[in-house]
Amino acid sequence: MFGHHFASQIPFDFLYEVSHPSNIDFYIKEVDSCLFGDLSKVDRVNINDALFYRDKIGSFRVKEGKEITFNRLSRKVEDLRIAILIANALIGYCIYQKNKFVLHASAIEYDNEAILFAGLSGSGKSSLSASFTQANFITEDVSYLVEKKDHFQLCGGSSLLKLSDEVANKIDGIENYKKISLKDDRLERNIYKLNVNAKENIRVKCIYFLDWGEGFSIRSLNAKELIARLLLSTFSCVPMNSCKESTGMMMHNASKIAENTPVFLLKRRKNLSFRDNKNIEGHFCRL
Description:
The chain has about 290 residues and is of the alpha+beta class. It has helices at about 80-95, 125-130, 165-170, 225-235, 245-260, 275-285, and strands at about 5-10, 25-30, 45, 50-55, 60-65, 65-70, 100-105, 105-110, 115-120, 135-140, 145, 150-155, 160-165, 180, 190-195, 200-210, 215-220, 265-270. Strands 7, 8, 9, 10, 11, 12, 16, 17 and 18 form a nine-stranded mixed sheet that branches. A six-stranded mixed sheet has the order 1-2-6-5-4-3, covered by helices on one side. Strand 14 and strand 15 form a beta hairpin. Helix 4 crosses helix 5. The radius of gyration is 18 Å and the shape is globular.
């Protein structure tokens, strides 16, 4: 996953198991709650240590990009719920701690290039990506970007898609995929296990940052706007700007993105979120 191998004490049944990987990049372990100390309910993240609390699920720690530990609130919290949270979020922080560039973005493959949809939680990244049924789905909410000489390359990621029933019913063919119920999701979404046919590593063509608005529009972002968007959409330190090393990494990535990757602000009306897909497709096809 994301070009990384890991060993885990809990099963990840939705992933392909590698019998004898050449190397293990990080470990996933269940630990006693006392090892977390006095953990508040506010996320605290830096390049070496990250602490998270998720209501009704448990506490999590990501350490130096080498280890993810967790303590579930009760035995009623299933292994699958823990595994989904780790795959769709915490692995992103683990890769960030390895000094890598990770965006809160979903992505599709179109004509052998990656189209990224980035933004805050609830901005429609997952649903918009899934709605392009003629394209190959690459990753949901965690996009690991590798800097090359004149472009960025996207590594294949999570095929677990979070959708509400209302949105899922608008997407052609979604009923063909395995549905996993999430009883405690704050946005009342379920998980859909998609078939990912995209390449493992693929050149990034462009990035769209998503907002809801009164109408449909696409416009380029200037350098100042790009930095502001990346501050909100990059896996990085929490609170923001609390880690100089993380801020330096983000500024470097913003500079490289501005040099070689077209970046846009995409606005849509929420209740008509897929009506403009042909306009969006036309836009990235013309680039």
